[in-house]
Amino acid sequence: MDTKNVVLWMVIAILVIAVIYVILFRGGAGKIDTTGWTANEVMNYEMHGTIPARVQQSSNLNGAPTMVGGC
To answer: Residue 28: its pLDDT value, please?
Structure first.
């Protein structure tokens, strides 16, 4: 193998490792980012599943109504 092939395979290996890392450790699918929350808010979320009101207000999708059903 010449030097170009070795470098190419090293770059491919690094990219594969980076993709695996992102999928396994940074995926975060379904997880809520709790950075910036107080310890009490994190505890309430972990124990009771409640999300602080200030977080709910900032994460509304394009001002979509939060009420489900009703008139």
So the answer is: 61
Measured CA to CA in angstroms, residue 24 lies from 7, 17, 27, 43 at distances of 26, 11, 6, 25
In this structure, is residue 30 part of a structural domain?
no
d(CA 39, CA 68) in angstroms, rounded, equals: 30
Structure tokens at 19: 């993709």
Q: State the 10-residue block means of pLDDT for the chain, 71 residues long.
A: 91 94 72 87 89 76 51 51
Instruction: Specify the number of domains making up the chain.
Output: 1
Which domain, by its residues, includes 52? 35-59
In a domain, 19, yes or no: no
Spatial distance between the Cα atoms of 57 and 66, rounded to a whole number of angstroms:
9
What type of residue sits at position 41? E
Query: Is 0.85 topped by the overall pTM?
Result: no
